[in-house]
Amino acid sequence: MPTTIEIDSYESETMRIVEDVFRTMLHVETHPNPGPESAGPSALTSVVQFAGEWKGAVLLQCDEHQACVVASRLIPGIEPARIDADVRDALGEITNMVGGNLKPILPPGVVLSMPSVVEGSDYALHMCGGNSARTWSFGGDLGTFSVTLVQFLDKGSGR
To answer: I need a labelling partner for 65 at 20 to 30 A (CA). Which of 82, 125, 137, 156 fits?
Structure first.
């Protein structure tokens, strides 16, 4: 039977990991933001899934400007003004770093997928099967963005 966790118990570690990754890799200070969790009309969502004994995903949602800043900080010598392959790759890589740092604190035996990036705000993302999720909002030098941890639940578990 797959392992399940209480997502809320991962709040402090998830927040610390996001702050550490953004500070270390992007030189951007972030902090928990009690405000709304919306990334605005030109949103991008980057997803990395976990597979193995525990199944889930981590999602990072931000706006177009934030994604361009992430790319310019992560890839030396570029200053993108709009979404392109470098911006999508950079956003996917930052989400992968957050997921990679979450991996050791999650149940043993999980592996990460390649990142996927969805552009735009006129979409609905459905993680098939049952799931539970928790979204945390962050603010700081980059403005407001959000990170969501999703747990895929076994349909037969009733959860």
So the answer is: 125
- 2 part of a folded domain: no
> How many domains is the chain partitioned into structurally?
1
C-alpha to C-alpha distance for 95 and 87, rounded to whole angstroms: 12
Positive or negative CA dihedral for 21, 18, 98, 60? negative
30-32 vs 130-140, strand pairing mode:
antiparallel
Among candidate residues 132, 6, 11, 110, the one with its CA nearest the CA of residue 52: 110
Residue 21 lies in a domain: yes
- Specify if 39 maps to a domain: yes
Q: pLDDT tens, 39-89?
A: 555 589 999 999 998 899 999 999 999 999 999 999 999 999 999 999 999
The verdict on residue 146 lying in a domain is yes
Residue appearing with tokens 């735009």: 120
Burial per residue of 61-92, b for 16 or more beta-carbon CB atoms within 10 angstroms, e otherwise: bbbbebbbbbbbbbeeeeebeebeeebbebbb
Interval 140-153: pLDDT, tens:
988 999 999 998 88
Q: Which residue in this structure is represented by tokens 């700081």?
A: 140
